[in-house]
Amino acid sequence: MISWNALPPLTMLRAFEAAARTGGFTAAGRELNVTHAAVAQQVRGLEERLGTRLMRREGRGLALTPDGRRLSERLSTSFEMVRAAVAEIEANAADRPVRVTLTTSFSSFWLMPRIGAFRERNPDVQLLFSPASEVVDLERGDFDLAIRFGSGDWLGLEAEPLVISSHVVVATPGLLERHPVTTPADLMHLPWVQENGTDEWRVWLASHRVEAGPKRDVHHMPGYMALGVLREGQGVGLVARVSVAPDLAEGRLVALFETGDDGRTGYHLVRRPGAMRPSVATFVSWLRQEAGTEASGETGARRPAKN
Q1: Rg (CA), the chain
Q2: Cβ–Cβ contacts within 10 Å for residue 30, how many?
Q3: Distance (Å, rounded) from C-alpha 20 to C-alpha 32?
Q4: How confident is the model at residue 58 (pLDDT cuts 50, 70, 90)?
Q5: In degrees to the nearest 10, what's the CA dihedral of 74, 77, 78, 81?
Q6: pLDDT band at 92, cuts 50/70/90?
Q7: Which helix (H) or strand (E) holds 83?
């Protein structure tokens, strides 16, 4: 086990290794982006720490002493091993796909229609999407990013708004002609369609003081299927407004009730704190640009993201 207290400071070792390899303080300073005086000071400090001369003047240049040559060879070998290890890790990171967990509904209505533009601009960035309703633990899993619906207050994670949106209960005009809805309690008499892994109907009705007793006609399915079933008039459902904005604008669906329009609730980009590897940063930058395009009003059917 390495005891760092027994070793000279790394800045001293780096300065000496660079000076020994390049043959002078000036060249070493250029390589390390410091002055030649700073390199000379570090080398002198190292010699004082070790109690021996490592370099001596020889004409207009520097020559290594036997101790200096021995240390230089070992340092060069060690630094090269470190450089090779870092390069290998960076290469592996560059080859690793950007792994993203997100809901099936967001994937189908927002991301997939746009992703072709990203691939065209960034052909070297591999993407791996995992659409699912289950919330993945980013701290323990191997996903780089998550796109989650909520208010952005996930403990221990960094979250930024991507697409802000309220929730709406929707149904087709045809279904409402046969089964009029005027109060939340009327929804108990209609089939409810919702995404797998959620209990939205019961939670929403309870929040509106409706006793949600036994109800058999609750249909669970992937988000993209739920949207299709709702558009076919097979039931009512609670969805993000942004996911059905074109349907509402064109009259294919009707918004019966709306909730959560607080400027914070919506789809968030979520990740672990810390630096992002380049491919992840590229994808995140593109997502932000797409959300910014919405904010500029260029995609009028969708609600803007607020930062």
Answers
A1: 30
A2: 15
A3: 13
A4: confident
A5: -170
A6: low
A7: helix 66-95
Angle at 228 between CA 223 and CA 230, to 5 degrees: 95
pLDDT tens figures, 293-306: 544 333 333 333 33
Predicted TM-score of the model (pTM):
0.64
Which runs of consecutive H residues, i.e. helices, occur in 158-199?
A: 173-178
DSSP annotation of 210: -
Residue 170, C-beta contacts closer than 8 angstroms, at least 6 positions apart: 230, 236, 237, 239, 244, 247, 248, 253, 254, 255, 256
CA gap 21, 228 in Å, rounded: 68
Kindly report the average pLDDT of the chain as a whole number. Answer: 85
Cα→Cα distances 173→45, 167, 181, 230, 234, Å: 82, 19, 11, 11, 11
Q: Please report, in angstroms and rounded to a whole number, the separation of the first and last CA atoms in the chain.
A: 47
